[in-house]
Amino acid sequence: MKLRILVIEDNQPNLELMTYLLNAFGHTTTIARDGEAGVDAAFESMPDLILCDLALPKLDGYGVARRLKADARLAAVPLVAVTASAMVGDRDKVVAAGFDGYIRKPITPETFVGEVESCFRQQAGHGHDTDR
């Protein structure tokens, strides 16, 4: 399973670690460093899966979710929050906002790619061809 994954993250070390791990496992990554650029990149690249921080400049992750889920072309693309928000109820808030999954920061390098792939499999059948 080779996925095209958009990573929307403003923290450079987190961005580098996530993209390094995903690329090492054969996935193709596109990056954006703020929410507005992330929305634009999603429409340009039409990824198989989107990883998105919640605390982003210009447009936060919740705004990204609203925009992407409101468009028929991207509504079915799995959108996964990657966030340090770990308070009681945060997962429910993220899912209610339109995210399809939730991965806590700091990420665990040994399990991160498996978590991402699991999020994709849980949303299987969304119509994307992943054999590219």
Write up this protein:
This protein has 132 residues and is an alpha/beta fold. It has a single domain (4-122), classed as Response regulator (Rossmann fold, 3-Layer(aba) Sandwich), CATH 3.40.50. Helix content is 41%, strand content 17%. It has a 5-stranded parallel beta sheet, with helices on both faces. Helix 3 links the parallel strand 3 and strand 4. Helix 2 (35-45) runs parallel beside helix 3. 31% of the residues are buried.
Task: Please write out the topology.
Elements: E1 4-8, H1 12-24, E2 28-32, H2 35-45, E3 49-52, H3 61-69, E4 79-83, H4 90-96, E5 101-104, H5 109-122
Helix pairs in contact: 2-3
Annotation keywords:
132 residues; disordered C terminus; alpha/beta; Rossmann fold
The overall average pLDDT, rounded, is: 91
Helix content: 40-55%
Give the end-to-end Cα distance, rounded to a whole number of Å. 9 Å
The outline comes out as: globular
**How does CATH name the architecture?**
3-Layer(aba) Sandwich
Query: Looking across the biggest beta sheet, what order are the strands in?
Result: 2-1-3-4-5
Report on the biggest sheet: 5 strands, parallel
Find the CATH topology: Rossmann fold
N-to-C order of helices and strands: EHEHEHEHEH
Got a strand count?
5
- CATH 4th-level superfamily: Response regulator
